[in-house]
Automatic annotation (TrEMBL), chain A:
InterPro entries in the cross-refs: BCAA_transport, Leu-bd, Peripla_BP_I
Stated name of the protein: ABC transporter substrate-binding protein
Keyword Mitochondrion: no
Signal peptide: 1-31
Family: Belongs to the leucine-binding protein family.
Limits of the Leucine-binding protein domain: 37-392
The organism of origin for this protein: Pseudomonas lactis
A Pfam family annotated for this UniProt entry: Peripla_BP_6
UniProt keywords, alphabetically: Signal
Keyword Signal belongs to the record: yes
Automatic annotation (TrEMBL), chain B:
Subcellular location, record wording: Cell inner membrane
Major subcellular location class: membrane
Protein name: ABC transporter permease
Key words, A-Z: Cell membrane, Membrane, Transmembrane, Transmembrane helix
Any single Gene Ontology cellular-component annotation: plasma membrane
Segments traversing the membrane: 12-37, 49-69, 81-102, 109-126, 157-175, 205-225, 245-270, 282-305
Species: Pseudomonas monteilii
Membrane topology type: Multi-pass membrane protein
Pfam families: BPD_transp_2
A GO term for molecular function: branched-chain amino acid transmembrane transporter activity
Length: 439, 314
């Protein structure tokens, strides 16, 4: 049968491996510095998070980088590229788990020689990437992941920044919005996807409600598995308890499916849904969602972004390129790249030169920069975590124009909803938000 | 102990790779480390394929190995690499000894589905344990070796040297195993189980021993994966991960102990370049690669090395 032991192994094995080595070394030389500012953009291009989050983010990066390279952005970003150097984007798929992302992150930095990496939606990926970024000294901006654990684990960050908000902010904000708009609510229920995101969101929300609306009682909590798609049983379980408020951290297709199914079953007529990620489907709800449903956009993004010149430019360009308004993941990607540009240009190196990661990091630390979502302060985690306000509003569908919009928007300032340094989100909530300054 | 020619070549290749590690770019060193860790799990899959059993749940032991390493670091404050790996392998062996009692009663699709089921049970349990970070998983602490810890930035290279050494020893052992009476028995069971029983052997206990051994090898890979990536999450036990191991096993073929190592490296290189060159449809490149292998090299990549000899005979 197999007489491989005699004839098989002479040189083919070594040959294959040396060939492999040679090939990969050759290509690494090819990707040497070319005078351009190379940004590695990592986001979901496949899998369930690609449609609602990954694609809008990748599109936003394209639109923005194109505009920056032409120097077409409004002030203060009207200079060409980053510090005068043209921007080149290397895009990578985030699918495949944290171990693979660590490998691809190293490839981006060491093989593709990117000057900075902007990306990551999954919290697990952010947690895994942070120590590697610090080890390699690679400038890294997380644009979307929301885990509160990030800077608890990476205690003395140097090269890692996050321009998006901690997920706890979403739920503190949601509870504060309810306090203002639904102070009489008695019965609260929740439905979350059963994984880290859903579990953390529900935990933060229920603890915030205990502090802010102690009279409201949690009557039901459903935790279906992520990407289940059919929520008949859960909707029945929720309906039986007749809640006033239904909180959900569902996102993407799951969230849209839940709204569609719960609305058809009449659940959303009696109860008000609070969807912390609801904004991403604003253009698609049409008349399938009830008016008055509370939606959030994980910060002042998407439909909640302020009407400033930068945002008008961004919305307009995005709309012309992709025939749809930018949703919150798109705004967040734009914010991360703008933050990077701001820091790189304040690193005080000669125009046209690319500053070293350490120089960018020094300028990024504690910076205040303008973004499509208004002014961003890197005011938490020792100047590495962005602090911004959060807005919630109610969905309104206009039958005549067939367009959905948000009404009754309330914006809470960053100081009102963001835990201060030195305490975890949950500790801060349980202590009754000491030091919060609310408008 | 006398080494035969194959074993000498295996050791020589390992030495060559280790030497190459000093000059190779760092990303390649890391990529090879990850590929070798995966290859160990694939060895576990191949060991069972030789006995005619396809497992779609080898991620179970991969995950147990990884989590045992990560949790020992976090909760027991153990940082010694050797001890961590021993704990990982030990945990997997214990689990395999229990599960094996049930698993060895089944063959073919029933074995495949049951193995899949057990790994998905672990996945489900991990997703629901928020103390372990649920789906986010948690970071693995830095390792030391007998009191020595690598200098900053040298960790990946040091781990590469260690995994090369372990892979070389493992390859020699597995090579001997495949030619031992127990290894031959596995092939005999695949060909005709009834005849093996007539010979007075118990196929079930041979398979049991093989199952436990495969679990140990896979857990070692899981442990190395945890230490090199520095992060573990329940995805390790997910069926897609297990499917990937079967994919790599098919890519390499079962004919030789070196095949899984080569296949894992080829897989890693193809994947990373596919991701770089066609970020939106890299999975398609992987799919076509497997399709091409199945069509043109039904016995896997290894038939490139033996193909001529075999064709001449046929």
């Amino acid at each position: 049968m197999n007489n491989y032991k005699k004839s098989a192994l002479k040189h083919p094995l070594t040959l294959a491996i040396t060939a492999g080595l040679a090939l990969s070394m050759g290509s690494s030389a090819m990707a040497a510095e070319n005078g351009k500012f190379r940004i590695g953009v990592v986001t979901f291009l496949s899998g369930p998070a690609a449609g609602p989050f990954g694609e809008p983010s990748a599109n936003a990066a394209k639109v923005l980088v194109e505009g920056l390279n032409k120097g077409k952005l409004p002030v203060p970003y009207n200079t060409i590229g980053i510090n005068g150097a043209e921007i080149e984007v290397v895009i990578i798929d985030e699918a495949g788990g944290a171990a693979k992302q660590v490998e691809e992150f190293r490839n981006l930095v060491q093989r593709q020689k990117v000057d900075a990496v902007v990306g990551y939606i999954s919290s697990g990926d952010c947690l895994a990437i942070a120590p590697v970024a610090e080890e390699l000294g690679a400038m890294t901006v997380f644009y979307d992941c929301g885990t509160s654990q990030l800077f608890n684990e990476d205690k003395t960050p140097q090269f890692v920044f996050r321009t998006s908000l901690d997920a706890a902010v979403d739920n503190i904000g949601a509870a504060r919005y309810l306090t203002k708009t639904r102070p009489d609510a008695q019965k609260v229920a929740g439905i979350q996807q059963n994984y880290a995101w859903g579990q953390d969101s529900w935990n933060d929300f229920t603890h915030s409600m205990e502090q802010l609306m102690p009279k409201a009682k949690v009557v039901e909590s459903q935790m279906p598995k992520v990407f289940q798609g059919q929520y008949g049983a859960e909707i029945s379980a929720l309906s039986v308890k007749r809640p006033d408020i239904i909180h959900s951290s569902f996102w993407g297709g799951d969230m849209e499916a839940l709204v569609l199914q719960a609305n058809a079953r009449g659940l959303l007529e009696d109860a008000t849904a609070v969807l912390t990620c609801g904004e991403s489907a604003l253009d698609r709800y049409k008349d399938q969602a009830p008016n008055g449903m509370i939606i959030g956009g994980r910060g002042p993004f998407g439909a909640f972004a302020p009407d400033n010149e930068l945002n008008r430019w961004f919305k307009d360009k995005y709309q012309t390129a992709y025939n749809t308004a930018p949703t919150y993941p798109a705004s967040k990607m734009a914010q991360a790249i703008l933050g990077l540009k701001h820091a790189a240009e304040n690193a005080k190196v000669e125009s046209g030169k690319i500053p070293a990661p350490l120089e960018i990091a020094k300028a990024f630390k504690g910076a205040t920069f303008e973004s499509v979502s208004g002014t961003v302060q890197m005011a938490r985690a020792g100047g590495h975590q962005a602090m911004q306000g959060i807005s919630y509003g109610e969905y309104q569908y206009d039958k005549a124009s067939k367009k959905g919009s948000v009404q009754n928007v309330i914006a809470f300032s960053g100081e009102c909803v963001t835990p201060p340094d030195g305490t975890t989100a949950l500790e801060w909530i349980k202590a009754g938000f000491p030091g919060a300054q609310c408008n | 102990m006398r080494l035969d020619k194959t074993e000498l070549i295996l050791l020589a290749v390992a030495a060559l790779l280790a030497a190459g590690g000093w000059i190779a770019p760092q990303w390649l060193v890391f990529l090879l480390t990850m590929a070798l860790a995966k290859a160990m799990v694939v060895q576990g899959v191949v060991m069972q394929m030789r006995a005619g059993l396809v497992t779609f749940g080898q991620g179970l032991f991969f995950c147990v190995g990884g989590y045992a390493v990560g949790m020992s670091g976090h909760f027991l404050n153990i940082s010694d690499l050797a001890l961590l790996l021993v704990i990982g392998v030990g945990a997997a062996v214990l689990l395999a000894m229990i599960l094996g009692l049930l698993m060895t009663r089944y063959r073919e699709i029933f074995f495949a589905m049951l193995s899949l089921a057990f790994s998905m049970i672990l996945y489900g349990v991990l997703v629901k344990s928020s103390a372990l970070g649920s789906t986010d998983g948690f970071n693995v602490k830095a390792w030391t070796l007998f009191g020595w810890s690598p200098a900053s930035g040298q960790g990946p290279l040091a781990l590469f040297m260690i995994i090369i050494a372990c892979s070389a020893v493992l390859a020699v052992l597995l090579h001997r195993y495949s030619r031992s009476s127990a290894g031959m028995m596995c092939e005999a069971i695949r060909e005709n189980e009834v005849r093996v029983e007539y010979l007075g052997q118990s196929p079930r206990w041979v398979l049991y021993m093989n199952y436990v051994a495969a679990a140990a090898v896979s857990a070692l890979g899981g442990g190395f994966m945890a230490l090199s990536a520095g992060h573990i999450d329940p995805e390790m036990a997910y069926w897609i991960t297990s499917g990937e191991f079967v994919f790599i096993a098919l890519l390499g073929g079962t004919a030789h102990v070196a095949a899984p190592f080569i296949a894992a490296i080829v897989f890693a290189v193809v994947r990373t370049y596919a991701i770089e060159l066609v970020p939106h449809s890299w999975q398609m490149i992987l799919g076509f690669t497997l399709l091409a292998i199945i069509v043109f090299l039904p016995k896997g990549l290894w038939s490139l090395f033996t193909g001529n000899a075999r064709r001449a005979k046929a």
